Structure formats: C-alpha cells, structure tokens
Amino acid sequence: MTDQKLNIGIVLGSTRQGRVSPQVGEWVKGIADQRGDAAYEIVDIAEYKLPLLGEGTGQEPGIAAWNDKINGLDGFVFIVAEYNHSITGALKNALDYVREPWNNKAAGIVSYGSTGGARAAEHLRGIMGELLIADVKTHPTLSLFTDFENFTVFKPAELHLTNINLMLDQVVAWSGALKPLRK
C-alpha cells in the first residue's frame, strides 16, 4: 500500500436558497483537516447544476464533471438535511446520476433536522446499500432546535466533536480497506 492519502468528499446534500449545509460541511471539514489522515474537500452538488435525471439531454457539462468528481474520491461524508422524513430530492438525483463511481467506497453521515435528521439518514443508508457504498455506524445528528440559532446559524454543541471524530476514523479506515476492490 502506498502512503498516498485517501480523498474524502464532504458532500453537501442540499441545494436550496438559504440552506445551512455549507455551514455544517465547513465545520466538519475544519475538524477533518486538523486530523491529517486524509485529503478532505467540500463537494457541493449545487455547483454541478444536474438536471433532473431523465429530463436533460445527457450532455450537460455538469454530468461528466459530477461523474469525474465521484470517481476521484475514495470515501464520503454526506451532510444530510431531512426534508419530509427523507433526503432532499437534489441529493437523491445526484446519487442516481452515477453508479459505478460510488461502488466499493465508504461513507459517513452527518444529518440535521427537527429529529437530528435521523429519518433522512435511514433512507440514505438504503440507497447507499444499493450503490455498494459501505456506511459506517457512527452517525452525528444535529438538531435544528439546539445546534442552530434561529434555525439558520449553525452553533454546534461541543459534544458532537467526539462523534465527528469517531465517524471520520471509521470512514478513513473503511475507505482504505475498500480501496483494493476498486483497482
């Protein structure tokens, strides 16, 4: 095995105006970067401007760029907002746009919502299973009521640091373990 660091994408799962996922993603990235165990980057699905699956021409530049981005990553941390007890339509659409580039990689979930986003995370786990993404056990959940001021300004409780680090430990370990399957 080489000493090359794994590439872990922190995927922002919301694209709506006024979303808070960039705040959560930057917080996770700040913690992750201090670890030095992988190369972490924010992956904002909004930047790829993916049309709804089946409604575009299939030639939009964002589709190829999205495929290339996912293909170049070894693992993921999904920042998941809970909308109507599930993941956002934008995240589901982005997951569906590629298939093999997701395979044999690991992912952690950081969710938020009125119940910590737990229901959305459970839906995402089923989708990841179909895409051959190994999801890790530790799952930090953030409450809109206690971890956000006025539901818009992210102010995480310090107690979440332990779970973020445990989740990242698992994502890095599993991503490394699965890497030989992708060669």
Q: Give the CATH H-level superfamily.
A: Flavodoxin domain
Mean pLDDT: 94
Number of strands: 8
Main sheet properties? 6 strands, parallel
Uncertain stretches: none
Count of domain modules: 1
Q: What gap, in angstroms, lies between the N and C termini? A: 12 Å
The percent of residues in helical segments reads: 25-40%
Rg from Cα = 16 Å
Tally of alpha and pi helices: 5
Shape, per Cα inertia axes? globular
**CATH architecture tag:** 3-Layer(aba) Sandwich
Strand residues, percent: 15-25%
Please identify the top-level CATH class: Alpha Beta
H-E string: EHEHEHEHEEEEH
Structural class: alpha/beta
Quick summary:
This protein has helices at residues 21-35, 61-71, 89-97, 118-130, 160-178; strands at 6-12, 38-44, 75-81, 105-113, 133-135, 141-143, 148-149, 153-154. By secondary structure, it is of the alpha/beta class.
